Amino acid sequence: MNWNELRIFLNVARHGNLIAAGRALKMDPTTVSRRVSALERVLQQALFERTHEGFVLTNHGRSLFSHAQEMEAVASRIELASASRKTLSGQLRVSVSEGFGARFIAPRLAEFSSAHPQLDIDLVASSGFLNPSKREADLAILLTRPRRGLLKVRKLIDYGLGLYAPSQRDDWTLALGQRSLRECGIPFVGYVPDFIYAPELRYLDEIESGLEASVRSTSIVAQQELIAGGAGIGVLPHFMAGRDDRLTPIRPDISIRRAFWLAVHRDVAGQPRVQAFIEWLDGIVAQAPKASASDAEGIGSSLARSL
Q1: What is the pTM of this model?
Q2: pLDDT tens digits, residue range 167-180?
Q3: Domains and CATH numbers, the chain
Q4: How far apart are CA 286 and CA 301, in angstroms?
Q5: Which of 2, 16, 37, 230 has its CA 20 to 30 A from that of 253?
Q6: In the chain, helix, strand, coil percent, each to 5?
Q7: What is the dihedral of CA 114, 115, 117, 118, to 10 degrees?
Q8: How many other C-beta atoms are found inside a 10 Å radius of the C-beta of residue 80?
Q9: pLDDT tens-digit map of 183-235
Q10: At 4, phi and psi to the nearest 5?
């Protein structure tokens, strides 16, 4: 049996529709449909039910899916062991929070993309995450450890956040001192409450009960620019703000800890392109200096490997 036919079958089974499978395979959906039908004729078995919701595996399809996954894992191990890293090809989609994606991964990604010029890389850095369990992404770097799904999960790194003010507003720093942030009269920059996409971003009450932002954005990158431009003070990750000369850290007594979690679907965890990216990611995290001398939770301080 042709392995390429099984690879097409696996993608349709995982994505549940021809368009998404065709996109992953870089094939026309009509061609994908024709190849699946041809495989069913060869096997003389219906592998999918065609429904309004998409392609659903039949009992025969589920049985073949299990065996095809085993074959894929073997093929991936062979490819990983024998193929040159420079020959990696296909598509790699990485979902990551906007701040970590834009400020930490993106400036370093040229190294990885140059090493693998035949690999198409989608860095989806936004508010919210694509779901590896639904095969929306090959891997995701999350603020919350996922508890469900066929995923391999580990902590990538701890990081810290602190309070920052625009460097040109020394008067704000002096006026604030140890006073209540709610009563100091200085505008506070933060998230739009209705659009907070992860509970880990609801940290204002950890700083001071009842604290609310008066200048708000759904984007942490926009918040950094707002603070640097003088719109107010606010909380930022040290890996974003620690080396921004437009910002100055204030109130060292205020410290927030969070973590990034790496999640990969079990079906793709062994694929060479995924393994190569994780290896590269671990390397840049481990090598990156801390954002500031006082940041005990800066990037690079606590790499944990278990995938």
Answers
A1: 0.67
A2: 988 888 777 777 78
A3: 3-82 (1.10.10.10), 85-156+259-287 (3.40.190.10), 158-257 (3.40.190.10)
A4: 7
A5: 230
A6: 40, 20, 35
A7: -160
A8: 17
A9: 788 999 999 999 898 889 999 988 888 899 999 999 999 999 999 999 999 99
A10: -60, -35
